Records
---
Amino acid sequence: MKPLSVNEIRERYLAFFEGKEHLRLPSFPLVPHNDNSLLLINSGMAPLKPYFTGQEIPPNCRIATCQKCVRTVDIDEVGRDARHVSFFQMLGNFSFGDYFKAEVIPWAWEFLTTVMEIPVERLYVSVYKEDEEAYEHWRKIGLGPDRIFRLGKEDNFWEHGVGPCGPCSEIFFDRGKEYACDNPYCAVGCDCDRYMEVWNLVFTQFNKLTDGGYEDLVNTNIDTGMGLERLAIVMQGAASIFDIDTFLQLRDKVRSLDKSSTSGGKQKDNIEMSVNIIADHVRSIVFMAADGVLPSNEGRGYIVRRLLRRAVRHAKLLGQNTPFIAELCPLIIEENANAYPELAEKQAHIIQALSNEEERFFATLDTGMTLLEEQCTALRKSGKTIMSGEEVFRLYDTYGFPPELTEEMLTEKGFTYDIKGFQTEMDNQRKRARAARGDSTYMGTDETVFHQLDAGLSTEFVGYDELKANAKILAMAVGETYPDELSNTAKTGDKVAIFLDRTPFYTESGGQKSDSGCLILSDGRINIVECLKVGAGKVAHIGIVTEGSVSVGELVIAEVNPKSRQSTTRNHTATHLLNKALRKVLGDHIEQAGSEVSPERLRFDFTHFASVNSAELQAIEDEVNACIFANLPVSVEEMSMDEARKAGAIMLMGEKGDKYGSSVRVVNIGAGTSIELCGGTHLKYTAQIGLFKLIGENSVAAGVRRIEAVTGPTALAYYRNYETQLLEAASILKSSPDQMVSRVQTLSTDLKQAKQELERLKSKLAVGKVSELLDKKEEYEGLTWLSAALTGLDAAGLRTMGDQLKEKVDVLLLAASTDNGPVQFVAHASKKAVESGVHAGNMVKEAAALCGGNGGGRPNSAQAGGKDASMTEEALVAGIALAKNQIGN
């Protein structure tokens, strides 16, 4: 058995199964495609579910992959043992109705013992206790009964809800007695580190029913999974997963962060645990960021945030007090870029996205840790051991501490927290996360009528070159409000989903809205409002039968609305120019985070960590229009993925989990000005866009900005609308458009001067009013009292009047109101009055209550408001009466 690197093992595995007529596929993105049951891909078979369920036809009945995976179920164990990691690579070979146990068992044995040269005596297997067929196949290759372990359903039977399932057989490697536990009966199936599971062969031969029973599948499948990193432990004789080659350089770099020897010291095992956690977590978030997952408080974004902040916290324990992740990213990218080229392509984006999140957390980390320490001190003094859920939520909401991180830190200090209390505080966030994921009923996809369609049904798209095409109806779904039942006929008024053998209608995809139009029959007409992909090659033309009737098998003329298509196409080509302009003006870190292209406008979401200022927006708009006015040619070419990468094409494999085949469509504008992978419709020349106008820019999420724009006739209409408003404003101001700024500046100056004069007159009026009001003061219990209702004063004027009177009386209560407006109260009490028991706050509160309002304040000064000014006089009387009753109390 020769030592092999991770990259060498991966290549040997995929090449071996290519030799067994398997199609080698690249790893799918970590973000699931049309699978609501998962936040992130966590196994090799997860992205292949449609092939197992028969919803889609695989490109080959034999497939082999090395799939990127993320699992966070056991995140608390990462770094504490030799096996757990959050990111790993899963080798897998799959059969869809082709080979079965008789082939896969000998192949697995051949690969491990011949290709990998693992000693036979160190390998053991387990089988499901009722699976005699698998047992006999292991016996046929020469494995003795003492090396085959029969285990129960909980260990050797794979099922997940209803649907395909079956027994499995696992292959174990004996690492030696030094890894054994103290159990004298330690054997395969023990949880210790001696017998390490390397490969799981799943034999999908049953279909689990809703009643809990099983039925045989017509076509059996094979689904295998072998952890690449685990096999590397075997091949490299590594003590743990953190000692294999892909981790060594990374861990050395992480160890350089350790400044604990100069800051009090730490035990070696704790240092190594923190090093492992940092290495694993940063590795995970680099791969997630490459697939477009950005830190957030929901869904998969929360996983990135949680892992990153846990890594930062452990770096802090090593004495690292400044951001460091940007130093680790290049090592991870360089180590893995050959197998996953998207890492190198998106390096700038990865580093900026993660560094921005790291810097934000560092800014609050010290404060949060101090607060947590204060809470722990308070718990010790009170003899309590449980921190309140409200405090844990405050740490999360204000200082960015994931509850799992708080729990880990509390556990280290001997405390826990009120989980139910925290969950109550988090309820709304959890609901949003669930809503974002959606519900699923069948292997992660929503069960619809379209799952009943023949898996081989597909529609040829001919709409790149023509907007009208002859076609045949292959299938149809019908319903009163939405097509929800397969049918062979439909009548006028029915809502339908029509499936054709060929179509010119573009199906909503990649951000571009679908076409609209009509299907014309010999005895009917169907207005099509949208087209949706409902499975591999299956296009549902959604619409309503407006004339006659329709039947499966009929011939139709499918006709796209040309005006709508042209407007959408104009906006799509402009979107590519916008993407290029953003990268030129703002930087290469820009990544598309979503888009929507419709006939009316275009919307483009992109990763950027600061607002876009007006000068940058102008530069972006100018850059796009310059490309339009240059009348650049737009070409489209089909090529391999490798050729596209070499051409520098931008590949948008992000949050939506877009999947590209072996042949991709590349849109090239201006012979290199913009090169993108794209399946959408595009113009022949950029001048056909006409004009590009930005109409909005804002933030839609942390680190994600959104730009909206219009083009062509819509942009012209936008300018004309502004011109109309400009002319109307000029007319109102009795000016011309070119003199409006000067005119507005003059009016603004005049208005300011008029306001100043008004305030001067009000002050003069108030002085005269003061003398008039003082004539109404009265004496009571040695105090001077005054109350009055004033009209024509706003709240500011009332306060000014109060300030002028409060030095001349001991107790003051004033009310003021404007025409048809609410009433405002202000009260003041001198030091002598307060000492006598008068409370200004209680006084205005009593008065305002009679007017349907409330308020209050200090004993010497208060204000309040009320809705019903008709009760002002009664309110003043009540307020003064209350104050007089307070004297001596």
---
Amino acid sequence: MQSRKDMDPFNAIILAIFFPFVAALFVPFIEKGIKHRIGWFSAAIALISFILIGQVTHTVAEGHAIKQSITWLPSAGIEFGIYADGLSMMIGFIASGIGFIIMGYSNSYMSHKEDLPRYYKYLLLFMGSMIGMVFSSNLIQLFIFWELTSITSFMLIGYWRNKPASIYGATKSLLITVGGGLFMLAGFILLHSITGTFDIPTILQNPEIVQNLKVHPLFLITLILIVIGASAKSAQGPFYIWLPNAMEAPTPVSAFLHSATMVKAGIYLIARMHPIFSGTDAWFILVGGIGIFTMLLAGFLAFRQTDIKAILAYSTISQLAYMMTMYGYTSYHEPGIGVAAATFHLLNHAIFKACLFLVAGIVAHETATRDIRKLGGLRKEMPITFIIASIAALAMAGVPPLNGFLSKEMFYETSLEMGHILGGPFEVLIPAIAVMGGVFTFAYSIKLIDGIFLGKRQDHHLPQHVHEAPLTMLIPAAFLAVLVIFIGISPSTAVYYIIKPATAGILLEEVHLHVALWHGFTTSLMMTIATFLIGIAVYTKYDNIAAWQNRTNERIPWFSMNYVYDKIVDGAKSRAGDFAGCFQPGTIKTYINAMLLLFVILGTIPALMVAATLIPDNLNFNVPAYEVLILGLMIIAAIASAVLKKYLHAIIALSAVGYLVSLVFIYLKAPDLAMTQILVETLTTIIFLLVIVRVPQIFREKISRTTMAKDLVIASAVSLTVLILLLNATHEIVYPLESLSYYFVEKSLPLAGGHNIVNVIIVDFRGYDTLGEISVLCLAALGTYNLISSRGDKQ
């Protein structure tokens, strides 16, 4: 690897993005050689991406954002570009750094009997998608990587395919996050229509564009659509319901995706869009309002959870809401009130929450349970895990001198400032809400320590002998715990190299941050003390609150977003059946006949109205003998396919029609079309023959003479209509007729760069149509594969 001076920043970021993608392709082959040690190979890939991102740290830390692009879709004004500033660098470091730790941890957590190539392949693909997303310099590129993170997350959540809960959680996450992504894409398209560009730096760095956007009539709907996408990804507002079910994934996946990286994607989008939309009432109401609501709701609902990963899931939702709230704090004169605090908490949360998930994995690995009601008293048998868990949980609770205390203090300070700006009752209400969120966080953080390690050992639920996990599981968690302490005691390094550049990247101006453990007896410190005292009081009623929530949920189960989601998804099949029964009650043949009749009407009426005669007088009957022979054989083969009684004979006759068409193409000097026709005809014939050998060979259905006569009339009418249209189309049914072929001949080279006109038409001029056809075929193939796979081996 070259030194920092020699490594081009653009190349370094490109390698950091695509190296995991390339490595993922080779994981199944490398695993055959190194077996279960494939996890170390994947960890090495993550480490390389981390180092590559580190190549540009010095440049970005000095305040120089890196922007470079290459031509991608010039007709749409879209380039594949890299935009590396402090914000993208921070998320990139988190994705690759935590990825390295998680993949190393997985070497001991994952059983050697598992499908390890599939596991590590999807982890690498996810990591590459996440890094690609945060370094994207245009909105379309960001959207593509955004959806790739959703797809790879779906694969990882549903890793255990034989568990219904795992499939349910994966499906729910996919529907919500991908659905939210489509709303976000609509917002991006509106943003482009307003600003005239998809390029993110161009929008960010042009005050005139931003100012025009804020007074545009489409400003609010654009903001709403983008916030929906961000909220769905980061499990905020009503979209929070997917994250608890995603805990069915292997615990390292939860630590990587659902605490440190994927759920941060929505927060990243909010931070990236901050300079564009902040400083407005709409931004504060939407972003800040969703954050405040979710912070209180998720913190409160965490009380009734009994699975330690579920508690961590709701705590993650709540902590993400802290960031949403702080990024939402804004005013016209001070648009970035909470940006520094939110950015610092984003880093801190990634560290202590990943640590807590690793601890949860250790506990589940050694005790074979995640039910906190069956745990307790493990501090003597797992003292190292107890210490690590206590450090991380207390950091989440905001206890000094840990990193969570520093960002929690900044949260309280910005809440006081926001309340003061709003004035009136908000001067008390906003800080009070912040304290209430802190109280809930304190309570469920203490519950994790108390419920797992303190109290009496549940001998009838736990194995007789419980011991510490292997070092390969303890060291990653211990390393994160050390980071929690280091950043808490000495925050200057993290602030200077990570938080300050990230904050400057969001605010687009130089920032001065001073973060320290002690600032004197400030109001924010009094709020922290109040949080601890109220939190202790609330914790004494923890079980009572949980029991009340359970009783309420039993009495009014419909008062839940999960209930609404299940009703919508579970009822989709029956509602689709009802819809089809109402609007499509007949047979397929009825609909085909109706469409053919409509075609005859729509084709014949214009011909009768416009054409002088249905059959032109100047037809050319001087046809070469070769064409007459081929056309005659085609007619004979077509008739044979309709009248032969055996399927095999009919299929051969039908294939003969296709091969004869290829001869026509050859005669007309179109070898590429002939080759395509031959390939398609051969493949279709083979598929037909593979299917037909499994059914009776003789056509047994009895067709009445009435039905036969009706079908003959319809077929004749359609054939005659097509004949009339083709004859008149070549004789200028609409005068003057200008053939489209001239356009394609003239434009194929300058517009598409191709000499093969047919290929250019298929790939470029009607590229979207071809893409649609390919997509339909892929979906049909996937559906067929799933139907076959669902039958079981014996069937």
